[in-house]
Structures are given as structure tokens and as C-alpha cells.
């Protein structure tokens, strides 16, 4: 994460210390957040890893267990944190998050209002985007959920960029202290149209708002309300499609069936010039992953109309 401590801002120059949060990376779909503490161990299928052996190593290091297995120790960026955080609510993932930050025009120094906080996935990325001189004020009506999110932000060193408050934005609106001082507003609410009049009062002239809704009926009603105070209203659905790249040998299937890709085992031999070369070149196959993340929700953006 982006820390307020200058010595901790560059993960490539900083070494792991006792009390740090690290991402233990086994593979792209198997990661875990661990807080380093002398005397504790981390165990997985590769063996036992002592926390004390990790202290002093730079982030990105490959570390080995008592059985010779290994993991990588990664810096807890917002992208990685989104993949390992505890899901207290439905969260936004990287495709939606990057789109939101871009269209909300969030840059260092911005003041951003968010409701609701949820699991804090988007909030961590917003905090990095506004740092070092901006701030994110996030609200959730659920007191325990807000408290857990606050603990996560402190653990990630983001407490100087994020303020968490308990408030029912749909019923009460945003606090008056933010009137006309906010650059961007993000809403993730069951009935966002109830909060839109308050959001319009908070935004600076030409400020931008985004509302996330899983159902198109919510979008329709929100757009009706948005047209009273906003312009340039548009809605997007972001779909992410990942591809799998595999290396192997093409062989005819059983009983003359279709060609299939078999795992490639490299074997080498000496060429006529005495150089070592591969016996055969593998086939590279690229195809969409079997499991694709589908619909998450609709993102509706609007700009405060000039008066």
C-alpha cells in the first residue's frame, strides 16, 4: 500500500520488518495475507516457513520451507489486497476499480466521498490514487463492518488517507461539512437515487459521480433522478475475459479422434555442429479460460451540471 512513511513507499528498496503485512504468493489463484511476527510459523502444503527467516528480505523474495518448497513474499498493493481480503460484502474487482478511478478523474490531492465502505476493496485503491495530499471519506451504515474496515486500513498503513464513519447516507445524506469541497463521489447503495440530491450538494462545480448497481432497474431509477442536477449521464458494464496459454505437443486422439494437446517434455540432443538444441518445438495454445468472471454490476457516471 501507499504508506505515509517515506521509508516504506518503495517496495523494491525496503526490506521486510517484524509487524509488516506481506502477501504470501503460491500461484495466481492461491495467495494469503500474513502479518509478520517473530516466533510464528506459516504452514502450507510445501512445508513450514518461519517468520523470523523472512525478516530482512526484500519484498518479492523467493523463500524456502523446511521441506524445500517455496513461496514468494509480495508487497500488499491494492490489487493484491483485493484478491486476499475478507469478504464482508460483495466487492469490486480490478476491472471495475480501474474503470471507476479513471472515469471519476481521481488524482493526487482529490477529496473523495464513498458510500458504502463494505469490505474496503475500492477504498484502498482510492486512497492510493489520492495520496499523498488527498483524502477518502467513506461511510457505512453497519457499525461492525465499518470497524473491521478501519482495522484493515490501519493494518495496511492507509489510516492517514482514509476516514471511516458510520452513517446512513440513504436516509441522512452526507455531512454538510463536505458541501462543495468534494471532487468525486462513489455510491454502492441499494437505493442510490435517495442519496443523489445530497451528493449533488457535496460536489464541486464540474465534479463527477459514480453509482454501482447490480440490477438494471436500479440504474433506470437512478438515471431519472440524475437528470435533475447532472449531465453527461452514461452507464457501463465491464466484462473481463482472461486467456490461458499452454505449451505442449499436438497428437491425434484415440481411434483417430481430433487433435489434442499433450504436455510438452523438453528433450535435448546435440546438433551436427555440436550445439545442444531441442528435439522438437512445442505448440503454443491460447484459449479463453474455462471460468470467466461475468456480470458484476453496472457503473453509472454523471457530471454535475454547471449553473
What does this structure look like?
InterPro entries: SAM-dependent_MTases_sf, TRM61_C, tRNA_MeTrfase_Gcd14. Its EC number is 2.1.1.220. Keywords: Methyltransferase, Nucleus, S-adenosyl-L-methionine, Transferase, tRNA processing. It is a single chain. The chain is α+β, with helices and mostly antiparallel strands. The protein folds into three domains: 71 residues, Vcp-like ATPase, Chain A, domain 2 (Roll); 170 residues, Rossmann fold; 44 residues, no CATH class. It is 21% helix and 34% strand. The protein contains eight helices and 18 strands. It has a seven-stranded mixed beta sheet, with helices on both faces. The chain has a four-stranded antiparallel beta sheet with strand order 2-1-6-5, covered by helices on one side. Strands 14-13-17 form a three-stranded antiparallel beta sheet, with no helix packed on it. A hairpin with a 6-residue loop joins β13 and β14. The longest helix has 13 residues. The protein is globular, with a radius of gyration of 24 Å. The chain starts with 20 loop residues before the first strand and ends with a strand. The relative contact order is 0.11.
Amino acid at each position: 500500500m501507499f504508506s505515509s512513511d517515506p521509508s516504506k513507499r518503495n517496495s523494491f528498496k525496503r526490506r521486510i520488518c517484524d509487524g509488516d503485512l506481506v502477501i504470501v504468493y503460491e500461484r495466481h489463484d492461491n495467495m494469503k495475507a500474513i502479518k509478520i511476527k517473530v516466533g510464528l510459523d506459516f504452514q502450507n502444503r510445501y512445508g513450514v516457513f518461519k517468520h523470523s527467516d523472512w525478516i530482512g528480505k526484500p519484498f518479492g523474495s523467493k523463500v524456502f520451507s523446511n521441506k524445500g518448497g517455496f513461496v514468494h513474499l509480495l508487497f500488499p498493493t491494492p490489487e493484491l489486497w483485493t484478491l486476499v481480503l475478507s469478504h464482508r460484502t460483495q466487492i469490486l474487482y480490478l476491472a471495475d476499480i480501474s474503470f471507476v478511478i479513471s472515469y471519476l478523474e481521481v488524482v493526487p490531492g482529490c477529496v473523495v466521498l464513498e458510500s458504502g465502505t463494505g469490505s474496503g476493496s475500492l477504498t484502498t485503491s482510492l486512497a492510493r490514487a489520492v495520496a499523498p495530499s488527498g483524502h477518502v471519506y467513506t461511510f457505512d451504515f453497519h457499525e461492525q463492518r465499518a470497524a473491521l474496515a478501519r482495522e484493515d486500513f490501519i493494518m495496511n498503513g492507509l489510516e492517514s488517507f482514509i476516514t471511516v464513519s458510520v452513517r446512513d447516507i440513504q436516509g441522512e445524506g452526507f455531512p454538510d461539512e463536505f458541501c462543495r469541497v468534494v471532487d468525486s463521489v462513489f455510491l454502492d447503495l441499494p437505493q442510490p437515487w435517495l442519496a443523489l440530491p445530497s451528493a449533488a450538494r457535496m460536489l464541486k462545480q464540474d465534479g463527477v459521480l459514480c453509482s454501482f448497481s447490480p440490477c438494471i432497474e436500479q440504474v433506470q431509477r437512478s438515471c431519472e433522478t440524475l437528470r435533475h442536477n447532472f449531465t453527461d449521464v452514461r452507464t457501463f458494464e465491464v466484462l473481463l475475459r482472461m486467456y490461458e496459454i499452454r505449451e505442449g505437443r499436438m497428437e491425434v486422439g484415440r481411434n483417430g479422434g481430433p487433435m489434442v494437446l499433450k504436455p510438452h517434455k523438453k528433450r535435448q540432443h546435440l546438433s551436427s555442429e555440436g550445439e545442444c538444441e531441442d528435439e522438437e518445438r512445442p505448440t503454443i495454445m491460447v484459449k479463453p479460460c474455462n471460468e470467466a468472471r461475468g456480470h458484476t454490476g453496472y457503473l453509472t457516471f454523471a457530471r454535475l451540471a454547471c449553473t
